[in-house]
Amino acid sequence: MTHQFHPSALREYDIRGIVGSTLGTADAEAIGRGFATVLRRAGGTRVAVGRDGRLSSPELEAALVRGLTASGVDVVRIGLGPTPMLYYAEVVLEVDGGIQITGSHNPAEYNGFKMVLQHQPFFGEDIQKLGAMAAAGDWEDGAGAVTDADIADDYVGRLVAGYGGGSFRIGWDMGNGAAGPVIEKLVQHLPGEHHLLFADVDGNFPNHHPDPTEEANLADLKRLVAEKRLDFGLAFDGDGDRIGAIDGQGRVIWGDQLLSILAAPVLKQHPGAAIIADVKASQALFDRIAELGGTPVMWKTGHSLMKTRMKELGAPLAGEMSGHLFFGGDYYGFDDAPYAAVQLIRAVHVSGRSLAELRDDMPELASTPELRFQVDESRKFAVVDEVLERLERSGADVNRIDGARVTTADGWWLLRASNTQDVLVARAEAKDQAALERLVAQIDEQLAASGIRRGAQAAH
């Protein structure tokens, strides 16, 4: 038996597609067969499986489990929950890998799979290998057993272990995503007053899209915080591995700003440690890490790449603009939004100030949102190479870790190819609006030189 995946489904960090069109139960079964085969050949025997709250998740889970057991691997089902709960299960249960069925923050018709093998992210070449194995029918045979484990209470217990975070009045918006039931349990362990929005899991996402990095999706949370005069608000994406936050005045605290707040207590505990942020993060964050005595490290965007770099450097903290926050040190090195929420509450408490005051202290810089330009898949990386070549010739100050990040007297701008879509992503940050316009003009000039017009800007 062999199987062909839709070419768009096997992506850099996960497998994802539109259910019934580019992804279906036959794919789920083939993923199970392939992953179980890789696991067995690496000496493993058991895998944990979790799922998010999407309407298609139960049928994909059943097919995945069929595939895993048919290739001779035992399955421990942990049921509905956020992706970090699956990562936690993979660490604490006696298993050799884990798979979460999740469409992350994509629209309701999407779904997919995030995988971990022997405590390491399973991505890039690993995912392509599943495709090659399926095409060749290169699968082991067997008959694995299936058991169920209810670990939600253990997970919540771990989230609040040693909590010393003070008492606040907080709004929580789960967006009808998979983190709802965990957050409902979590707030019962926290002092203070907690107001929950959309905690019921509903794969139709009837209230708003579950992506807290889009400011429009925070409107309900802003209203709640304003009406009840709460200290701050926290929001989660569809599978609970990314966090969003607003202060008591309703201002969004972006991923890099959250990282700069979390860095203070972390560096007290781990003086001089490396703290990693992606190439999209503000220069103000890297400056703040250095000011706190830490070692700022700029790295590539992508949760699998971040986890790998953290392990290499032994970094206690890392984060991305997208709201993925990763905790090493006393934790396990994965991105966990419920844990990030607890750590943020604690960081605000130990600072002795309000979240709004911490935000007031941050430098006011002018910046663009993420600008996205539609580009042919075959040209995507080539354009970045052309831009880098021209910049080198002009003697510009360029960081090439992930695309081109150019620093000038005005600030910096970034142009990189998305790993997951046929778009180029740009961003700029400057000391004031006039400086920002000069930086954006440089981006436009480079794109034009490679035949891409500003009119090509893609919908987000």
Architecture overview:
Helix content is 36%, strand content 23%. The protein has 460 residues and is α/β, with parallel strands linked by helices. The protein folds into three domains: 15-150, Alpha-D-Glucose-1,6-Bisphosphate, Chain A, domain 3 (3-Layer(aba) Sandwich); 154-360, Alpha-D-Glucose-1,6-Bisphosphate, subunit A, domain 3 (Alpha-D-Glucose-1,6-Bisphosphate, Chain A, domain 3), CATH 3.40.120; 366-456, Alpha-D-phosphohexomutase, C-terminal domain (TATA-Binding Protein, 2-Layer Sandwich), CATH 3.30.310. The strands form four sheets. Strands 1, 2, 3, 4, 5, 6 and 7 form a seven-stranded mixed β-sheet that branches. Strands 17, 18, 19, 20, 21 and 22 form a six-stranded antiparallel β-sheet that branches. It has a five-stranded mixed β-sheet with strand order 9-8-10-11-12, with helices on both faces.
List the helices and strands and how they pair.
Elements: E1 15-18, H1 25-41, E2 46-51, H2 57-70, E3 74-80, H3 83-92, E4 97-101, E5 110-117, E6 120-121, H4 125-136, E7 146-148, H5 152-159, E8 168-173, H6 180-187, E9 192-197, H7 219-227, E10 232-236, E11 243-247, E12 252-253, H8 255-269, E13 274-278, H9 283-291, E14 295-299, H10 303-313, E15 317-319, E16 325-327, H11 337-351, H12 355-360, E17 366-367, E18 371-374, H13 380-394, E19 397-399, E20 404-408, E21 411-417, E22 423-430, H14 433-449
Parallel strand pairs: 2-3, 2-4, 3-7, 8-9, 8-10, 13-14, 13-15
Antiparallel strand pairs: 1-5, 4-5, 5-6, 10-11, 11-12, 15-16, 17-22, 18-22, 19-20, 20-21, 21-22
GO molecular function, one term: intramolecular phosphotransferase activity
Keywords: Isomerase, Magnesium, Metal-binding, Phosphoprotein
Domain Alpha-D-phosphohexomutase alpha/beta/alpha: 11-129, 166-250, 254-363
